[in-house]
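Dear support,

We are seeing what looks like truncated structure output for some complexes. This example has two components. We would appreciate it if you could run it in full and send us the complete token output so we can diff it against ours.
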Amino acid sequence: QSALTQPPSASGSPGQSVTISCTGTSSDVGAYNHVSWYQQSPGKAPKLLIYEVSERPSGVPDRFSGSKSGNTASLTVSGLQAEDEADYFCSSYAGSNNYVFGSGTKVTVL
Amino acid sequence: QVQLQESGPGLVKPSETLSLTCTVSGGSMRSHYWIWIRQPPGKGLEWIGFIHYSGSTHYNPSLRSRVTMSIDTSKNQFSLRLTSVTAADTAVYYCARPVGVDNRYAFEIWGRGTMVTVSS
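Here is the complete output from our reference environment:
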């Protein structure tokens, strides 16, 4: 299966909001609500931010929110902070016990 | 809380077998799925497969012919074997556990990752 499509980069000033898209197909993002988002800082393991499209694990600030429309999922980071500068990856269940990740988006805090 | 730690050789020769183990501490393996994911240098993430506490497995179709996962609940460990490796298998390998019992869709707990280089 092909990787989900994300913009290579996104940026915003502190306090602003940035939204990252994750485009799949009717066989993955469009078919299931098993969409997740991960934050990865350099040299670190990914951290789960959002699961089941819009659920946040305990400890993740509510500045992070997720949504989905059709074949595209989105992650919004509100009130950008310097510590939000990282790579962000989406993931989706693709049926038949298969999973696909996004290509990744580098977020820069200006 | 639950912690995961990968271990295994950092260098594997082409055509040989990559073997990694993930040790689970601070919690039970019972009823959970256990995941392997890899990330080539500078690239995105790739799901390798999962093994359930019961021993059932499922692998990425692109790797299925070369992957085997196993679990040893008495040692709180699960393992990955990848045969006939090439340079394309060079990556950081992560073990992970999904959110919640019997969930296999979102990966909440991750090991720190271990870099495996395939080179002669």
